């Protein structure tokens, strides 16, 4: 199994973390997509969107972090990580949607402005990120995990850019239940970190 | 089944369209979230994110268009709309991810700037939208549907903001395979339109 990977990408880290929790081995293929690096034709042939992460599992190529989490959960995980019944499955999907919206276009973009000089409006990204953190915090006041009584891929998908929020100038200390959930994530058997965590 | 709904929302239309294709009946609960309209406490109790669509299926409340599509497909659809096996499921998820990224933050935001005076950078949104259209078009040159040999919820999720792209100042006539796919969508038995289509 090959993972096209970039160390500082929170989206790539979602896959590295999930593989670690599942005990899956893979070969890392480093890709540099930071501003100014051209996307090679070889890489665009693997992923026409030109983004990491991409997984190549013995010839089955899956791009996009959300799609890869779903693929790995269904193929190598069990019902815990991604339920099959309509309502529990929808609970996971709701928080995957939050991870793709408030967290990616709020928190992750704020971090990209601060760390990688990307051109987005920092205040607007932070405001969007804060709305995501508020929704997460309210939910985690009454729940230990986002979508079920145990961790699912929803937690894996939301965790990186939440935990990295301080790199985008967003303090987490107003979100006490989020902080406790971060501690629970870091206590999972097999947990690995990434730079900045 | 109640659908908290806004007529001009492409995300709400995804659900209306899928219900029409599945032959599902629902009661529409109109919500006005256009700029300047306060979000009521009643509505925030239903969806803490304060967004439409929200589905209430006999007390099972699901928010977020992507989560609702997955819920309806698993509960009332069949394997066609959302496969269960890892690889075909991942194919659907990949295009759901495109719908949540290039299409929502590119095409839908460009439309929101033009139609609803939202404050985003029109040129940047259009550029992101164009990259999504290019990926879709290249894929649809070799495939009739996005994720399988027949339509799935990936097509439902991607269709609205692609078809509405001209409202955001994006011509589709450079994307011939996308145009043909739009025509195939509109020919599906049970298809319904929305304002602007």
Task: Please sum up the structure shown.
The first copy, chain A, is of the alpha+beta class. Chain A contains seven helices and four strands, in the order E-H-E-H-E-E-H-H-H-H-H.
Describe how the helices and strands are arranged.
The structure is a homodimer of 197-residue chains.
Chain A: E1 2-5, H1 10-22, E2 27-30, H2 41-46, E3 54-57, E4 60-63, H3 65-76, H4 86-116, H5 122-140, H6 153-163, H7 176-186
Parallel strand pairs in A: 1-2
Antiparallel strand pairs in A: 1-3, 3-4
Helix pairs in contact in A: 1-3, 1-6, 4-5, 4-6, 5-7, 6-7
Please tell me about this protein's structure:
2 copies of one chain form a homodimer. By secondary structure, chain A is α+β, with helices and mostly antiparallel strands. The first copy, chain A, folds into 2 domains: 2-76, Glutaredoxin, CATH 3.40.30; 86-186, Glutathione S-transferase Yfyf (Class Pi), Chain A, domain 2. Chain A is 52% helix and 8% strand. Chain A has helices at 10-22, 41-46, 65-76, 86-116, 122-140, 153-163, 176-186, and strands at residues 2-5, 27-30, 54-57, 60-63. Chain A has a 4-stranded mixed sheet with strand order 2-1-3-4, with helices on one face. The longest helix of chain A has 31 residues, at 86-116. The radius of gyration of chain A is 16 Å and the shape is globular. Chain A binds chain B through residues 48-49, 60, 62-68, 70-71, 74-75, 84-87, 89-91, 93-94, 96-98, 100-102, 104-105, 119, 124, 131, 135, 138-139, and chain B through 48-49, 60, 62-68, 70-71, 74-75, 84-87, 89-91, 93-94, 96-98, 100-102, 104-105, 119, 124, 131, 135, 138-139.
